Structure formats: C-alpha cells, structure tokens
Amino acid sequence: MTRQIALVVSLFILIAAMLYGLIIGSVHVPLQTIWNVLVHHEPSTEEQIIWNFRLPRVLIGACVGMVLAMSGAFMQGVMRNPLADPGIIGVSAGAGLMAVLIMIIFPEYYYLIPVAAFVGAWIAVMITYALSWKQGAVPVRIILAGVAVNSLVGAITSGIMQLYSDRVQAVLPWLAGGLSGVSWYHLDMILPYVAVALILSIFAIRHANILLLGDEAAKLLGHPTEKSRFFLIIVSTLLAGIAVSVSGLIGFVGLVVPHIVRMFVGSDYKFLLPMSAICGAALVVFADTAARSWFDPIELPVGILLAALGGPFFLYLLRRGGGRIGNS
Hints:
By secondary structure, the protein is an all-alpha fold.
C-alpha cells in the first residue's frame, strides 16, 4: 500500500506544480481564470499568456523532467550505482555537441536538433562502450571510459564555440539549461520521440530488474546480461537526448530524482520508473517556474537553479558513501 500512496501523492505534487507554473509569473493569473481559459477558451489577455507562453512551457518542462529522471533511473541500474546519471558515459556531452553544431553552423536545420542530439549521444555512448569492452563491459570500465569521452567531447564543443565566437551568444542560455522561449512548436517537435522512448522504456523494465540481481545471478538464469545492458544504455541515451534537444544541458535531475524515489518505493522498476517520471516532471516544472518568477525581473536558467539544488544533495550522497544498487 505504501507504494500506491506514494504514487498518488506524487501525482498530486505534479498537478500542483503544473498549476503553480500556470498561475505564477510577471502577471498573476487566478485559478478560476485558468479554468475558464482551458475549458471555455474565453478570449482575454490571460488566455494569450496561458496558451502561448505558460502552458507549452509547463508541458515541455514536464516532458523534460520525465525523460531525464527515467534516463537516470536506467543508468543507475546499469551501473548499479546511485551516483550514476546520463552524463556519466558521455550521453549529455555527445547530445550537446551535435545540438551546438546545428545551432551554430547549420541553424537552418533547427528542426533536426532532436535527431542530431540522439545521434550525438549515441555516438558518444558507442565510443564509451567500445573503449570499455574487454570480454564484456563491466560498470567500472564504462564509467572510466565515460570520463575520457566526456573530456574529449567537451574539448571539441569548446573548440567549435571558440571558432564561431560571433555566434555563441545564442547558444549560451541553452548550454546553461533553460526553457525560455519554448513554444508549441518545440512540444510538437519532441512528442513523437517521447512516445517512442516511453514504449521502449516499458519493454526495458524487465531487463533493468534482471540486472539488479547482478551479472552472475542473471547469467545463471540464462539471461544475456550484455544485451540487456546495451539495450538499457540505448534507451537511456534516447531519453536524455530528447531532453537535451529542447532544454539544453540540465543536470542533476537524473541523479537526484531516482535516488530519492528509490528510498520510498525500492528498486523494482515497475514502481521506480513511473514514480521517477512523475517526480522528475514535477521537479523541473516547479524549478522552472521558480527560476523565471522568483528573481524577477531576471529570468534565471532552470539548469542553474537545479545545479544549485542538486550540488549539495550530491555532496550529501558522497558523504553517506554512495552505495550500490542490486545484489552485486
């Protein structure tokens, strides 16, 4: 019953965060007005604010938080380490590199950013996986190879920005991670990829649960652990690539959310994954609303606020010793 209660509570928190995102801003919109706008479509200034600015931003924030948290949950299972997140094996860096290439050098192909972000993340992950392979790819070698790939990709990204320094200004807010300027166009752009990622994630739950047993136990059951690990990394890559393509480099959601959720519902991915998705969506929506309204007239990129919140939590995890997931 505890898991069901936690799920219901998290849904209420998500709804509250989304309503908060619609109400709060430079113009305060009462709840009754929001109801009239959403249900009766009453034409007014408030309708323009809700429909054209706040609603798409809230929905995109929910999608970004959802996929980042799910990506982190899978990555922590693959690595059997609660301190793992999508960026640990080059996912975010690879996606960021390709997105920067599109925005700086080929801006006319802006609509291809989701595909480019996934391709960049996938290439980075494949390089990491290849470097870590030695009669299998164990988590420790994957992490070490990921550190090297992150460093290399980061250097290439910095080099491109240096070469095209006159065009960097438009990319800087994206690198900080933010949802400023998103619209229905961006939501339509990522929704097909989100749908595919959610379907793959459902199939990935069984693989993630089996890997929790540890490689030896899984092999004794006749399960192909390397195929499962590879599949989960690909799903995690797709999820993170979706988020990077529309919001930039937002960190700590994939680290913090699954770790907190695991404290309440355990490591079973049948509960951990949907709960992480809901809580991740709520966190990003709330943090984005706070970032754009609490510091008025300045709009702070949500990535900076989440880093400020996630950094101390990460230090807390390190202080506790991190730990491992599963039986191995």
